[in-house]
């Protein structure tokens, strides 16, 4: 299985409300270019909302994007191992359903996007705000590569006939209708993934401090509340 990229596509260091310099692309531009709607927490969530990044395929089309809710995550530090528990946030990842995708060299095709694509993007997003920032650089990169590989393998298992026991079932409202998700927890937070009712997109989400069991999702018609 291939998704847009196995490298980091989500930037959790952005400060909400930061404006781009004149002439620079704004974070919202990628979202506005997308041909599919994005999902976020529904109107019952009254906290801050903020934009993350979009990711594109080899043909330049936007393939996924992430919207944040609550506190901006901070990196785990060895000096303050409990710091991650002080931030309450949920990030929702929308992945466009792409049955056919060109490879970067244009000579072939990649596998279709799937619920596993959403699961991996959510899992690696959670990792990006929890890896030990004060670790020696080479060791840190090895640790992140190893953990990202684990996240990918777990996501890949969602494609098979038998889902790994690391994942459990969780049903949450999406646009007011119950939708089944794959769900797993870790000491750093939770991750979930599923596909929308109409099959036009795959949803992933990750968070910490906010219980996943009380969340509900909906299409975002106006991104202004996230800028």
Structural topology:
Layout: H1 27-33, E1 39-41, E2 49-56, E3 62-70, E4 89-96, E5 101-102, E6 109-110, H2 115-128, H3 137-156, E7 168-174, E8 177-186, E9 189-195, E10 201-208, E11 217-219
Antiparallel strand pairs: 1-11, 2-3, 3-4, 4-10, 5-6, 7-8, 8-9, 9-10
Helix pairs in contact: 2-3
Describe the structure.
- With 227 residues, this protein is an alpha+beta fold.
- The protein has one domain (27-226).
- It has helices spanning 27-33, 115-128, 137-156, and strands at residues 39-41, 49-56, 62-70, 89-96, 101-102, 109-110, 168-174, 177-186, 189-195, 201-208, 217-219.
- The protein has a seven-stranded antiparallel sheet with strand order 2-3-4-10-9-8-7, sandwiched between helices. It has a two-stranded antiparallel sheet with strand order 1-11. It has a two-stranded antiparallel ribbon with strand order 5-6.
- A hairpin with a 5-residue loop joins strand 9 (189-195) and strand 10 (201-208).
- Helix 2 packs antiparallel against helix 3.
- It is globular and about 40 Å long.
- Mean pLDDT is 75; it is low at 1-23.
- Residues 1-13 have a biased composition (Low complexity).
